[in-house]
Every structure is written in structure tokens, then in C-alpha cells.
Amino acid sequence: MPEYAFDLVIIGGGPAGYAGAMRAIDYGKRVCLIERAKIGGAGVYHGALSSKTLWELSQRIRNVNETIIGPGKVPYEITWEEVRRTVDEAVFERKFQFSCHIKLLKTQRRDLFEYHRGFAKMIDEHRVGIIREDGSTLEISTENIIIATGSRPKQLPQLTADEKIIMTSNGIDYLEEYPKSLVIVGAGVIGCEYATIFSNFGKTKVYIIDKADRILPFEDEDISRIVSANLERRGVIIHHRAALQRIEIVDGEVEYEIDVDGKREIFRVEKALLSIGRSSNKEGIGMEELGIKTGPNGKNIGDTDTQTNIPNIYAVGDCSGRIALVNMGEIEARHAVERMFGNKKTPLSYDNVCTIMFLEPEVAAVGLNESQCLSQNIPCKVVKLDYSVMARAIAMRKTQGFFKIIVTNDNEMKILGMRAVGEHASSAIQAVALLIKMDRGIAELAELVHPHPSIVEGVQECVRMLMDRSIFKSSVFKDKLACYSLVDGVKTPLQRL
After folding, report:
1. CATH numbers and ranges of domains, the chain
2. Spatial separation of the C-alpha atoms in residues 146 and 144, rounded to whole Å
3. Mean pLDDT of the residues in the chain
4. Pairing label, strands 6-11, 137-147
């Protein structure tokens, strides 16, 4: 009998924890995965999969209605029951894959993999206690521990969501009908995604409380402007510069009061959605007793390359307090395991993470944006290409959007970042993301034969503009194309006629 029953115990079976367990199996290590609720976590339930299924369905409804629009045409509608059925099918499909995978692993690789359903608490750095569903307890020993306990939606200090009238993203999944009206508190990515979803369906009057001057304030103004205009075109009311003074349930509905530039206004809606961020699930798992340190405001567990101040304990995913994305959590967990068992020395980079925002239009991002270059006083070159000059976008009749690529202000023109706004945006950033990771310039993209017609051809045309070889000249199509340097806040056109 070895000194430790397991090489690794992972607390939490969401995307990060699950990825870490599978990577440990790759190394032939004995791993125990513990999940207190649902395997797959928010990546499957009440999060990425369910909300994006809603978005995909709402986009189809919007596309149909934009196609058939005309005098006397009745908008196409589906019932909320049909919406829920589609989401439930998607969640079940993914849940079934996880369940089957675990069942087969427990049979075929029982020498390496063990799974327990229950609440886990670290007793010390080498022992974990489990309270199982039936109330029984189990204590196991391990060489290493990964904390991957995920996160939950934040609540307002003065209000706890009942998940029926005032909801978080968890409660949205239990709606029984389209809300007649909905106020969304928070104008970040998730809030704007749900505003897009419900306005696409066309059955809900949507309001957004935005404390800033514009929605998505962390992105460039041109991105915020196009998303905001589309929401407002579909009837969404955005309360800009609004301070929420009061929100409460009155007569079975939601009453909220806001202050906009010193003027108080009161509104009454059927439902409310709190979209103000997420909080790490780290209570009660033994962190305080073991003396595991956290960064400012209790965030950044595992501050040294996923490793905590206790060398054999790591923290990954949402609970680490860094970038709350499924893909980032999976990479963190895999990286932690590779440090343990693969002697990996290269630190994990949090720069240039690919993201996608499911808005109207779709927004994909990697690396720095123009605003960040300005605020950090980074000299750069910027190129912008409108979707309306891309053959594939014209063929799809989806010409709203643009590509923006930012490179260093030198002859190498190494890519600093890219923003893609429009159809197929998420597919367009991959080559650019790879060049950023490789610290390479843009020349390779200029000569690569791209598929035609495709959206990614726009990336090539951006690169050609930077190299002064483009087909369409930015000095001619000034309303569709732009190519300029940005030094000390001053824009200087680059392309010659």
C-alpha cells in the first residue's frame, strides 16, 4: 500500500476540474475527482452551454423575421416551451457525454480514476474528507490537491435573488414563459448577451441599467456603439450613467429606481436579471484552516502560476479569481497537472486569451484593443476593414461589422491584438491568435491562399493594407477602410493611393 492513496485529488468537477483529471490520467497518475452537485458545472448548467444555446436559437428567430419582413407579414414565433425543450436537449446531450465517459473510465481505468459525488473539505495538505450524498463520510489521502470549485452569480448586497422574479443567470433556466418585460442590472458581456437573446425573440421589453457612459466599457467605442445601436433598434432601453438606488419586489413585479445625472426615475417590470459578475466557491473547503492565502479582495488563489502558498495545492478555474472562462479554466488545470507531473517550467500566460461575446453582432477578441494601446501609450499601427467589402459577408447578406488588427509601429509589425465584429467572428481570430503566441509578424498571412469566399479573407486584406498592397485602397473607401499609425494619441493615415 503506497503512502498516498492518490497522486491527485481534484475538488470540483466543472470544466477545469474535469480537464485536470483527464490530464493526470495521461501521465498514468491515480486521480480522484470530487463533485458536490453536477458534473460539468456551469460550463454545462446555467452557463456557457445553456445561454449560448438560447443565443443560437434566438439568432435563428431573428434571421427568419428579418428575411420575411414586409407589409402584412406576421413575425415568426416559437413558444417558451419549445425554447426550453431545445436548451434541455443540448444540456442533456452534454451531460450524457460526461456521464458515459465517467462510467466507462471507472470501468476501464479503475486503476487510475475514481469519482465521488459529495462535498469535499481539505483536512490538511495531504488529506481530504468527503461527505457523500447518502450522508456517509470518507477520508482519502493524496500527494497533490487541485481546488476547482467554480463560482456562482453575485448578489446585490441589499437583495437576495429569489430566482423567480429577481433572478441571476441560474434562474433564467427555470422561466416558465417569456417575461413581458425584463430589467438587466449590469451592462457587461453576460448582461448584454441576455439583452440580445430576449430582444431577438421579440416577446420581451428589455431594459439595461448601465452605470457607465456606454455598454461594454472595456472594449473600443466602435464595438460598443454597434452593439448598443442594434439593441436599441430592437427596442431595448439602455439607462446610461444610471446609479441603481432601489430594486424590490412590489405586488409580484419588480420596481426599480435609478438616478441618471441627478434625476430620479422609477420603473416597473415583470422580472429582473442580476448580471453583476460571479463569486468564487471557496467557503467551507478548508482553505482558511490550512492558511491558503488569497490576493486583494479574496481573489487570486494560487498566485504563483496556479500554485498556492502550500506547494502541493493548486487553484484553477473560476475559483482562482482570474479569467472566468471555460477555456481558461481548462488550460489552467492542465497546466497545473503538467507542473506536478511533467516538470513544466514555462509559466502560464494570461495574455492574448481568445474570447467571444454572443451579441448582435458576434464579437471576438484576442490581445490588446485600441483603447488599451492608447491608455498604455503603446505606439502601434491600426487597420480596420468593414464587412461590407467582404465577398462572403455580401453573399450572406450580413454586412454589418468589421475587422480591426493592431500591430507594432515598426517594420516587423508584430500583432498586438485583433477585434472581429460580425458573422463568423470567432472563426476569424484563430490565425491571428497563433501569430501573437508565436511572436510573429504579419507577412505570413499576406501570402497565404485563403479560401474564397470566406470571412477570413478579410484578415488577409487587413494585412495587405498594412503592407500597402491591398486590393481596395483605404484612401479611396474612407468610410469602409482605415489604416493609420497611433503614436502619442495622434492618428496618422498610412496607406498611399
Report:
1. 6-45+87-152+279-341 (3.50.50.60), 166-276 (3.50.50.60), 361-493 (3.30.390.30)
2. 7
3. 92
4. parallel
DSSP state of 349: P
In 3D, which of 194, 186, 259 has the Cα closest to residue 217? 186
User: DSSP secondary-structure letter at 334?
Assistant: H
pLDDT at 3 over 60: no
Q: In the chain, how long is the greatest CA-to-CA distance?
A: 79
Does 75 have pLDDT greater than 90? no
pLDDT of residue 494: 86
Q: What is the pLDDT of residue 392?
A: 94
Contact (Cβ atoms closer than 8 angstroms) between residue 355 and residue 433 = no
Give residue-wise pLDDT tens across range 349-407: 888 889 999 999 999 999 999 999 999 999 999 999 999 999 999 999 999 999 999 99
Q: Which residues neighbour 429 within 8 Å (Cβ) at sequence distance 6 or greater?
A: 354, 364, 365, 366, 418, 420
Whether the upstream peptide bond of residue 361 has omega within 30° of 0, thus cis, is: yes
The single-letter DSSP state of residue 234 is T
pLDDT tens, residue by residue, 476-491: 888 899 999 999 989 9
Q: What are phi and psi of 346, to 5 degrees?
A: -70, 125
What is the spatial distance between Cα 386 and Cα 462, in angstroms, rounded to a whole number? 10
Q: How far apart are CA 32 and CA 147, in angstroms?
A: 12
Q: Which residues have C-beta within 8 Å of that of residue 124, sequence separation ≥ 6?
A: 290
